[in-house]
Amino acid sequence: MKATKLAEGVYWVGVIDWNLRDYHGYTLPGTTYNAYLVVGSKHVALIDSAYPGQEYQLLERIKDVIDPKKIDIIVANHVEMDHSGTLPLLTKMLPNVPIYCTEVAVKGLGKHYDTTGWNFKPVKSLDKIELGGKTLVFVEAPMLHWPDSMFTYLAEDKILFPNDAFGQHIASCERFDDELGKDVALAHAQKFFANLIVPLAPRVLKKLDEVTKLGIPIDVVAPSHGIIWRSYAADILGAYVNWSHGVAKNKVTIVYDTMHHSTDRMAQMIAEGVMSEGVAVKVCLLKDGRYEGNHRSNIVSDVLDSKAVLVGSPTLQDEVYPTVADFLSYLHGLQPGRLTHKKIGCAFGSQGGHGGAVAIITECLKKAGIETINDGFEIYYRPDSAELKKCYELGQDIARRVKAM
Ligand code: FEO
């Protein structure tokens, strides 16, 4: 197995997990657990590791560069097991190896593993270590995305190792942004941001501002998942600023499920109304999440770059449809409406009894920070021609509001 060189003495020695398809509710085409080896004239540092049981690839790639026993420094940027899971093995293999991490990470690692005898070296922002011609500088990044998180910066090569931030869940033979293609890389990064980073957007902006004020040049961004940004580092940094502010397109995302195709017909007519105004629309059926486009984790990526979100559901036992409840719960956790640039939305659906789904959705949209334009549109049984016309007009109304935002 081969390591990949980023710069003189700096190597990617990570793990490609081709088979991972679900990661806490996020559907993905595999991922990578990126670890990096920095070889100085005095010390050899390993930055991050990999998921438990993935040590084979990690050690084989390290061996491509150096005898793993020559590693005399470990940097643990983050406690989550996809980046710390091979530490128990590494600490056995390298007794008393110093582990540089935040004070919070010391406690966090102690809750995950038996860390008795581990040689922790807690660090604070701007602490640095010299490896001999290579200087590692640490920047604490609490809640990006766990309390223990930190970034590591390699000064001489201007490489930022920000762990999860700027990552993407993708398993590929390409290691760099220019090999995968800028648009594909950014699309995967957008999905990652939409599913994991959105609720932390204010902290992202604060941290980016702090890093900018430090005046450290960043040529390469080497996250802990996916490709490494070497040609488009400025693009991913800029994208994070835009996504954190909620900058969106003139686009409407319509998300719904249907029992007997009544809510489906409403969704189609709303979409026609949106398109008639020259505004982009994405229609997402929640029917079966095994299909890529129907999965909540793909839909929220569309929600992120849409100015409007409409959610539809039939009423079932006085409640929303189970798939819609799942989506609304996910949306509530992410809070995509609470970014600088607001989102608008509304609810729609069909009912054959007491109704109620539309009122529930309207409240859920509000809780996710989305400004509802009305109390929603609920019809009885099948939509008749007058009601379908109203759906079309609702789409037009939403589209006009989007263009005015
Ligand atoms: Fe990729 Fe927070 O772990």
What's this model, at a glance?
36% of the residues lie in helices and 24% in strands.
Describe this structure in words.
With 405 residues, the chain is an alpha/beta fold. The chain folds into two domains: 4-245, Metallo-beta-lactamase, Chain A; 252-404, Flavodoxin domain (Rossmann fold), CATH 3.40.50. It is 36% helix and 24% strand. It contains 13 helices and 24 strands. It has helices at residues 55-63, 81-84, 87-93, 103-112, 177-180, 182-197, 201-214, 233-245, 262-276, 296-304, 322-334, 357-367, 385-404; strands at 4-7, 10-12, 15-17, 22-23, 26-27, 31-33, 36-39, 44-47, 73-75, 98-102, 119-123, 128-130, 135-140, 150-154, 159-161, 220-221, 249-256, 280-285, 306-312, 315-316, 319-320, 344-351, 371-372, 377-380. The strands form six sheets. The chain has a seven-stranded mixed beta sheet with strand order 1-2-7-8-9-10-11. Strands 17, 18, 19, 22, 23 and 24 form a six-stranded parallel beta sheet that branches. Helix 4 (103-112) links the parallel strand 10 (98-102) and strand 11. Helix 6 (182-197) packs across helix 10 (296-304). The longest helix is centred in the C-terminal third of the chain and has 20 residues, at 385-404. The model has no long low-confidence stretch (mean pLDDT 96). The structure holds MU-OXO-diiron. Residues 78, 80, 82-83, 145-146, 164, 224-225 line the site of MU-OXO-diiron.
